[in-house]
Amino acid sequence: MTDFLVNYSWIIPVYSLVGALITLPWSLGLIRKTGPRPAAYINILMTVLAFVHGSIIFNLVWTRQGQQFVFHWLQVADLDLTLSIELSPVSFGALQLVTGISLLVQIYALGYMEKDWSLARFFALMGFFEAALAGLALSDSLLLSYCLLEALTLSTYLLVGFWYAQPLVVTAARDAFLTKRVGDIALLMGIVALSTYGEGLNFSQLDSWVSGHQLDSTTAAFLGLALIAGPIGKCAQFPLNLWLDEAMEGPNPAGIMRNSIVVSAGAYVLIKLEPATTLSPVSANALILIGAITAIGTSLMAIAQIDIKRALSHSTSAYMGLVFIAVGLRQVDIAFLLLFSHAVAKALLFMSAGSVILTTNNQNVTEMGGLWSRMPATSLSFLVGSAGLLAFTPLGMFWTYRRWFNGAWDVSWWLIAIVMFVNTFSAINLTRLFRVIFLGQPQVKTRRAPEVPWQMSVPMVALMVVTLITTFAPIKWPLWLSPNTPLSLLQPELVSQYSIPLLIASGALGCIIGSTIKVRKAWARSSNIGVRFIQDLLAYDFYIEKLYDVTVIAAVSNLAKITSWLDRYIVDGAVNLVSIATIFSSNALKYNTTGQLQFYIATIVIGTGLLLWSMINSQWSIVTNYWSSLMQ
Amino acid sequence: MLSALIIIPFVSAAIIGLTPLSGKNPRNFAILTAAIILTINLFVCLQFDFQHQGIQFAQDVAWIEWIGLNYHVGIDGLSFPLILLNSLLTLIAILATSPTIQRPRLYYAMLFLLNAGAVGAFLAQDLLLFFLFYELEIVPLYFLIAIWGGTRRGYAAMKFLLYTALSGILVLASFLGLVWLTGETTFDYEILRSHTLPLASQLWLLAPLLIGVFIKIPIFPFHTWLPDAHVEASTPISVLLAGVLLKLGTYALLRFGVGLFLEGWVYLAPWLAVLAGISALYGASCAIAQRDMKKVVAYSSIAHMAYILLAATATTRLSMTAAVFQMVSHGLISAFLFLLVGMVYQKTGSRDVDYLRGLLNPERGLPVTGGLMILGVMASSGLPGMVGFISEFLVFRGSFPIFPIPTLMCLVGTGLTAVYFLLVINKVFFGRLTENLAQLPPVQWKEHAPAFVLLLLIVAFGIKPDWVTHWSEVQAIALLTGG
């Protein structure tokens, strides 16, 4: 039995895909009698199956490490494309995270999406979404991962565009797709190049190729940059970070997945690719630089947002920035831990935010307040999620940081400074959100606010418990991924001695600032022009969107207009000119048929005269000689 | 057996055109015949030996001996997928034709002539025979555009006729030159292939051939007939035009350009690769600025056909197979997109992206058409799991080692595909349904049947690409070995 389950472990991602396909009759409106609920139940059942199957394998996998399933997908000429799946604690740990959170989210969605008329379509898309994510967790081949990343891009597009009649949703879905697509195309270029230069597209083959590659440094740099472009788009890193913020227009349950797992999926591929992404120092430095810019920039943007989901989603980008830095430093174990701790805590925060939104029908935090006593489970979830995200003893992120700065890894002052910065600003952001949403006097929209129904509160509380339990993961985490694993502690340096106290202090400082600033007044636009400028600058994401409007978008659309104009008036114009010239000249020649004999004779005489002249002067031989010389 | 594929459409064209069928009969007869042709094709498929190099089921009869014309037909891995595509799309085009079309007998007769012309050109193993069929197919298409087309059909049909006639003349000039320079008395493909001319004469013969097929494919700057023809042609004709007839150009490119003039081809290849890159970017860039949905698909066709040229220039074993695969892939996807655009046009009376809005509305809009359109767009922009991804991946993977820069240009073109198509989807299908579109006639499921068949193939070949690559792999390699 166990052998059977292990041998068919590749089927786990297929479960939810099948679920999505089975529910098509409901989402297409072929079955209307039963209402859309059965579709939801089928999908949840499929996810349960995937979760149970995954759990069994996860327990077995510790003893059966290194098993691979290889599918020869396509063999053409000298090209052999294989897709492979790996059985390892990491891949199945990731799978369990995906199916677990997906299960909770789907139950949550039963409550959240209850009133939506196209519930079935939502669940079909979620099934597709989950299948792609689960496949990505197991994939051991870059080609398969790319395919699944693209499937994610599509399902993100469809899920963000779920309420497609709203104008903001339309632009958000478009931007999400196109931004990710920019990264994906660069990644595809990288894959084509890797497939040409390398030995194969499986991660293990890439690892062995990278250690002995013969590329010159420029090619290697471009290749490395192309490979990191895909994850940059997926993880919403600068300069491709804006889509995540806009995507918050979509339904919240999908937002939970997106902010916790989907962004992690991009980083997961980056981690798996690690030796290839840091092929050249240029791309490794680019990772660190991009991660640092994003971590600092989005931390700042987050504190100026008044939309509850946007405030949280900017913080997602910030934490992904830390992951990028860790990968750039080749400390992939830490990157993985960061992903894990962040995913659980952020999912919980988003569930809590979703409950608030559903109850108050509102995303604007300035119109909230006093929900603490009315929605205790939601409030508690927000607190636990926040604690899990900050360096708060004894929860997940604290232990992750502890592992990072315990002296085993080579860390420097600038790194601890960035982490402190992110931690401080997260603390400010979360504290001020908590104050303004849950504390204070209730406002109009929060006066009648009952706790959410059980479909939502049960998953939320369950995830709260999970967040508390997963603390043990960073403590017990063995080192699996790093190529040169630091097994024993280095000499504890000054950095590592002071880093943990510093981090806790930065969190505390953030909380103090967050609880002392005047929240409501600060959001009313300040009359001080300097303060107002900074407020707007942060609230509008440093005007990056405007910048894109006047640069990239304007360039593409103008180029398109110019090309189209050229096509219409120059290329096609030339064609039409030829035809008009033909018609005009033939019309002109028409006047030759005058009926006057003298004119005809004159034409004949001139024509034969010219012919005779050219033959006598042997002009023809020049032409024929020229042509025959060319022919030989 | 192969001759049946040519004769049956001719005969049925005559039957439909000349006998007094009325009412639904011409349509039913046409469907039946097209189904028979497809069945014969599938039968050929069973008999076909994919590992065999060279032509199969050959038939060689002297026709007009004093000019060296033989009726020499045969099938190989290069033409086989295209013939199958041709018969499939003919059936789909007939099914997609409105049952209440005007002058049905003439229409279906023309459609079968078109089918016969295309299949004859793909089967011909004699240069002159190829040219005859290549020209033959222009005539019915001219009428199909000029009679059942849109408002500017006269202009578009005449432009198409002049362009493609010029293309035919150039191709013929090249063939005549080849026979003259080799001193042969026959136009037989295999015999002419066994001669190797000096490079200079190869280039002189290749140049008119290339311009001729570039008009047909079409490659920038010879493409301007295509958007006009597509916009004015009715939906089934657009399906056939994009799905099959453009493939005549790329087929001639591989069969004659590469097959007969390999040395000259390799000499010109770097320039042609750059031209392919320019054509891909140009088509994509024009598509972004279009307001008519059909024009967007037409320009996207130009961009995607350029990948075939790119693959052909690389002349590696992989890239030649990829070129054939991309032909099949483009044939299916563009036909699919034209069907859906046609459906939108039929139901709303408009293809203007600024006018249409919110068609995804589940109650009063066209939700299924919209859903299919999203899938088609994704297939076209190379989403994995559908045939567009793997065929383009093979093209790029095949040409990257030889011509990296043009390959990267084409990859950017692929990225732009998502841009122009997504703009269309966003404008036409997303948003709130406008009041003037609120009373759309509902779409019956059977109206979508042709589109579903194509979608099934697009997905099936996307998941199992070796079904297509096995057809042409051996023969595509044989083109490069010379003789």
Task: Describe the SSE topology.
The complex is a heterodimer of chains A (632) and B (483).
Chain A: H1 2-7, H2 12-22, H3 24-27, H4 37-60, E1 67-76, E2 79-87, H5 89-112, H6 119-138, H7 142-160, H8 167-197, H9 203-211, H10 217-234, H11 242-246, H12 252-272, H13 274-277, H14 281-303, H15 308-328, H16 332-360, H17 376-389, H18 396-404, H19 413-438, H20 454-469, H21 472-476, H22 494-516, H23 519-523, H24 529-539, H25 544-590, H26 597-616, H27 619-631
Antiparallel strand pairs in A: 1-2
Chain B: H1 2-18, H2 25-47, E1 56-64, E2 69-75, H3 80-96, H4 104-123, H5 127-136, H6 138-148, H7 153-182, H8 189-193, H9 199-216, H10 225-232, H11 235-260, H12 262-289, H13 293-314, H14 317-348, H15 367-380, H16 387-399, H17 404-428, H18 449-463, H19 466-481
Antiparallel strand pairs in B: 1-2
Briefly summarize what is shown.
The complex is a heterodimer of chains A (632) and B (483). Chain A has 632 residues and is mainly alpha-helical.
Question: Could you explain how this protein is built, in words?
Answer:
The complex is a heterodimer of chains A (632) and B (483). Chain A is mainly alpha-helical and 632 residues long. Chain A has 27 helices and two strands. Chain A has helices at residues 2-7, 12-22, 24-27, 37-60, 89-112, 119-138, 142-160, 167-197, 203-211, 217-234, 242-246, 252-272, 274-277, 281-303, 308-328, 332-360, 376-389, 396-404, 413-438, 454-469, 472-476, 494-516, 519-523, 529-539, 544-590, 597-616, 619-631; strands spanning 67-76, 79-87. A two-stranded antiparallel sheet of chain A has the order 1-2. Chain B has a domain at 261-483. Chain B: Keywords: Membrane, Transmembrane, Transmembrane helix. Chain B: InterPro entries: NADH_Q_OxRdtase_chainM/4, NADH_UbQ_OxRdtase, ND/Mrp_TM. Chain B: Residues 124-416 form the NADH:quinone oxidoreductase/Mrp antiporter transmembrane domain.
